[in-house]
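Q: I'm building a small set of examples for a reading group on sequence design. Run inverse folding on the following structure and report the sequence directly after it, with nothing in between.
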């Protein structure tokens, strides 16, 4: 009876090929073209409509509301008939 190998030759060839493609892909990401694009993300004046999202009180209140909703949903109504 012939012993079976963990990886056949075809599987090994495919594995080596995929590894080489992954290495080439990773190397291609290492150096990008220097396009020197200047992007201004501060459009408008000081009163942007997205300023409220950077406020830590808003994040804390949102987290508290989310925790309360999850707690109420997990509690359920198993004791009611």
């Amino acid at each position: 009876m012939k012993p079976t190998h963990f990886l056949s030759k075809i599987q090994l060839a495919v594995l080596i090929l995929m590894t080489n493609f992954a290495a080439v892909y990773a190397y291609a990401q290492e150096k990008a073209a220097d396009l020197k694009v200047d992007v201004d993300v501060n459009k408008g004046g000081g009163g942007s409509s997205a300023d409220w999202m950077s406020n830590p009180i808003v994040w804390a209140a949102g987290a508290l509301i989310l925790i309360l909703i999850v707690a109420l949903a997990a509690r359920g109504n198993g004791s009611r008939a």
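The chain has a mean pLDDT of 78.
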